[in-house]
User: Fold this.
Amino acid sequence: MPGPIVRINPDELHCSDPYFTDEIYAGPGRIRDKWQHQLNTGGAGPVSVTGFSTVNHELHRSRKGALSKFFSRQQMLKLEGEVDQFAHMTIDKMLRWAGKEPFDVKDAFNCFTADIISQYAFGEPMGFIAQEGWEDNFATWVKSFFRSAYMMRHNTLGRKAAQILPLLANYMGEDIKAVMNVMNVTIPGYIQSALDHPENGRVFADLMESKTLPESEKSMYRLSGEGFNFLLAGTETTAVSPPFLAICSPHLLY
Amino acid sequence: MAMGDLSMLKGVAYLVVAWVAYRVGIALYNISPYHPLARFPGPKIAAASYLYEAYYDWWLVGRYGKVIARMHESYGTFGIDKRVRLGTLLQIACAHGEKSCCKISGARSGEK
Assistant:
């Protein structure tokens, strides 16, 4: 009989029984800290102080709570007009592309979703739909992040070095360099412009006004990390959904 | 001066040897019966250090999942009474004072 539980490293057990899910994950009244070894994939730079990378249960909750209201169904419905607008821009661009060389449709969807989430989070699109071609897009950075993830988890020295000396990251390979540059330079720029125009009423402008989030949690460093996670989660997963929907349940798209 | 270089080199060598001995000691403890997770099945080489996981995930890039799937097949209920519930198993580990394990299974006072 296959075993439901095995020890996969000095401190970790792996469970293959789906009935055990409720026990392992956090829920009402069940406090669960995260596991640092897993979080080390994003263990350097602003991303290491985000809600996603927070070990402590209570701190994780307070960081997550400040953001969760932006993702209610009601909030999403308010976005419909903008999403529709971006969809039309993307389709128009595809039609204009007719007769040119083939492109990866995933790149097109990636441009689409990255512009939506950045419009929502920062109040301005990153300009991937408006640009000439379909690449570069956010996937270019995401790939760098995931390519460096395992190195970050296992190479303690490299992780600490990238953490303490962001400049050093420039010499740790193209992937680390690109990721750290996005987190330390590109995204702070977007957040700053969101803060400069609070009248747009976007996530990061609102977050600064949040009463539940202590002031110490509102540093540019930390917000940049959260911004990176927004883009990461809001771009990659959603970019693969439209083709999936188109194949499985096309009626949902119209 | 040559003497100075030599003793410096010796000092570094001692440090390296001490460090290696320290890591080997930790690895031996990890697979010893004194480790709180000792009763759980799995390959000893994986339990000894993180290098095994690092080889598959870092060096071969993201292959450890497949290895884990194979572990579930080959390290069945070896050494564990099938009737024991998983929750109870983790509580046993907790009782042995494993900190990270307690975090996983949660500080629950009683079984449902």
The mean pLDDT of chain A is 84. The interface with chain B takes residues 1-17, 20, 23-24, 30-33, 35, 37, 150-151, 153-155 of chain A (CB under 8 Å). The longest strand of chain A covers residues 5-9. Residues 50 and 83 of chain A are 27 Å apart (CA to CA).
